[in-house]
Structures are given as structure tokens and as C-alpha cells.
Specification:
heterodimer; A: alpha/beta; 5-stranded parallel beta sheet; 5 helices; 5 strands; 34% helix; 13% strand; globular; B: mainly alpha; 10 helices; 0% strand
Amino acid sequence: MLFRGLSLDLAPGQACHVTGSNGMGKSSLLRVIAGLLPAYAGTVSLSGRIALADERMALDTGQPLARALAHWARLDGADEAEIAAALSTVDLAHLAEVPVRFFSTGQRKRALLARVIISKATIWLLDEPANGLDTASIARLGEAIAAHRAGGGLVLAASHQPLPMEPTQVLSLVDFLVAEDA
Amino acid sequence: MSGALMALIRRELMLAFGLGGGARGSSGFMMPVIFFLAVATIYPFAVGPDAQLLGRTGGGVIWVAALLASILPIDRLVQADIDQGFIDQYVVRGLSEELIALAKTIAHWLSFGPPLMLAAIIAAGLLGLDAEQLLTVEIGLALATPALAALGVMIAALTANLRQGAALGGLLLLPLAVPLLIFGAGSLLPGGQNGLLLLAAASLLLTAICPIAAGAAIRAGRE
């Protein structure tokens, strides 16, 4: 067991920053909320679609970025224009025709953010979204999050470092740790 | 839901035919076909050029080769998608693991069955089968390859995340595919036409059950 007694309530437009050091269970918390891991006890209730951005990109690396994203656009009901718009939001429009395998760490992270934007999901679950991003890209991440919240979306971001958003809540996992001797 | 199924099949086909790059390599669908033809080519070297003997045993060799060829693609079918996060992303979107497995089965069959059936024509020539035997082999392969594809996906799902998964996959597939081999090769014997009916029944059963088992295995593997 990683944590217990944890309670969190987010309304549209709100954002929560989950903090905690490595291995404390930030990613596990996101996976529980996303429905990928069963909670040992307790419930998760949410309305609206989820977009999960963890450390894995889920883009076919042999394909050009625009076509790799098109796979998710087909599943999420987005069109070409929305792909193009998302790419310019994350400043990757000029790399749309470049195979994903040539991308650097930061570019991969931005491609992942584009996938989240295209999904048009209400709930964004972001795991370390600022890792590997340069200053300009972090600012762009902040703009994307702000635009998403302004549109009624909500954001739950887990990171050990400061994030470019003004969270309505900060959830520190340290407070909910299961004591070693328990 | 059927739109999602089509989108999944489309991506699987693109990967299978070598357009997606990444973990499955390029033109991976050719490997089973080449292997299949290689077995058909070396068999006459082993038993000699006796046309009568080849004609009598060639059908069985084609079936053994088809079974062994179906092992080759197994390790690439599920593991890569788990590693790259595709399965998780599908599940977050509310797609069931069974639907994912079904899409993989359909796409795997399309990239595996028809090429193998085409290669069987060449193999029949190499092994000296007559036209009637070839027709029976082709009908048999058309019936059995969906089951071989479904078995492949199920075993790929079961052995995903195991260290020796690829080797284990072959060992698991062969016993499960024995009914297909018996009825398929049996249909080539004189008066064995009813073997095709039993082959169809065995194939239908496996094709129907395997995606459900594969879905359960993917789900179990995540938790």
C-alpha cells in the first residue's frame, strides 16, 4: 500500500498539483484515477473523458508525427485541422512530417501534449509534464493548461518540480503515506 | 465501437505491413512466408526426389510448416503495444481488452493468412502435390489460419512481460494447434474430406474463444 485517507475533489476549471518525491506513488495515483489500477479501498468517481499523459508516448515511432497523431484523432473524433492546431500549440508544426523516432526528449514530451490536446478530454492527468522541457516549452505547457481550464477542463498534474500553472489545490502525498510500521 | 475497431485494425495492418516502423520492424509479414517456403524447399533435400513419396507426405509437411511459421510473429503482437503505452491509452478511452484483442486477431490474420495461402501454391509445386491436393490444402489453410492467428494473439498476450516470452510462446502454441494439424493434414488422406468439417469446427471454436482469453490476459497483466 502506498497511501491512504486521500481525498480530492476537483470542479471544472480547477487544477491540482500532486507533489511528492520519487517513488511515492504519484504515477500510481494517476493510474488509479484513470481506471488502469484498482484501488485497494475507496472510490473514484468522475464525469467526462480522460486523457492520460505518462512517460510513454504511445505514438508509432516509425511514422511522421502528424500520421502518428492521426491514429488517436480517429479514435477521439478529431479532424486534421485540430491536429494542426494542436501541433502549433506545442510548436511542432514544422516537424509534422518528421518520423517520431528522430525526436529529442523535449520534442517527444511536446508531441505527447499534442496527443492530450487532440483527445478533447475534459480531464487531463499529466505525469511530470514539465520533464525535459526547455523554458519556452514550459511556458507553452502553461498556456495549454490555462486554455484547457478556461474551456471548462480540469487538470491533475503530478510533478516533483514547480509547474507553470496556478493550482487551486496542492496535494502533497507525504501527508497520506502509510507509516512503515503500520 | 465499430469505428474504434476499424481504427485499431488500420493501425495494426500498417504495422504488420511494415509502414509503422518501430518495434515490429519493416515488412515483418514476409518472415513467416519465407520460413514456410524454406521448410517446403529443404524437405525434398532430406527425403530425396522420389515424386511419389513427396506427393504422399508433402501435404503434411505444408501443415507442419504452416504451424511453425505461425510462431514467428507472436513476440511482436502485444508486448510492443504494452511497452509503448498503447494498451493503456486504449483502456483509458474505454475500449475493452477483448476489442483490442479482436482487432489484433483480425489484422494479424489479414497479414498472415492470405500470404501463407499464396505461398502454399509455390510450396505445392516444390513438393509435387497435384491440383486436387492443393485445393484441399488451400481450403484447409483458409479454415485454419484464423484460428492460428487467434492463438498467436492469445499467446502473445499471455506471454507479454515474461522474459523468455518468445521461446515460451512457441511451446505453448504447438500443443493448442495440434487439432488443426490433425484435421488439416488428415483431410488430405484418401477419403479424408470430412476432416475439413472437423477443421472448420475446431477453427471456429479457437477463433471465438481466443480473443476473450487474450483480453483477460492483457487485463491481468496490467494489474
